[in-house]
Amino acid sequence: MKALRNQGRLDREDWFQHSEIGYNYRISEMNCALGIGQLNRIEAILARREEIAGAYDEQLRDCRNLRLPLLKVAQRRISWFVYVVRLADPFSEMHRDWILQEMNSRGIGCGRYFAPIHLQPAYRHVVGPRDGLKITEFAAARCLALPFFNRLEEAQINEVCGKLRELMTTAEKLVPAGKAASGG
User: 145: part of which helix (H) or strand (E)?
Assistant: First the structure.
């Protein structure tokens, strides 16, 4: 039951591993009360998160080996609960994991983003070996979630972006010669 209420994750498993199909039934009365309180200031929360996403975009948009999320979608509003960048080809999962480790060792809390659902243990019986989703797997192996919360300050965004740029330059030197960025 604990796994079912926690999106199919067992306590002993990695956060990104789902052994069975589950649900998000982890909300308490306290969480509900906080949520109701936040609804009173939802516009301010969404506006601040849009500002933070815009600040990341402005500082990172010229990084040729980073793919940034869209800032706007026609006739929709993005809720911005996370800001995820993707390393372009020729970078690999190894590069992403090294950058993540380096950022975290410097006190900059970054993380992998969720693994493709077809690779989760809960779906092993559904997805066959020839059903691989190579583009999904390629993209997922290069995603990096940057620090993202309402009180993120400009100086912190500057630090995150500066360190990411520095580490991207170092990681780029690790890429085998002759591999050009193709946009991944």
Answer: strand 143-146
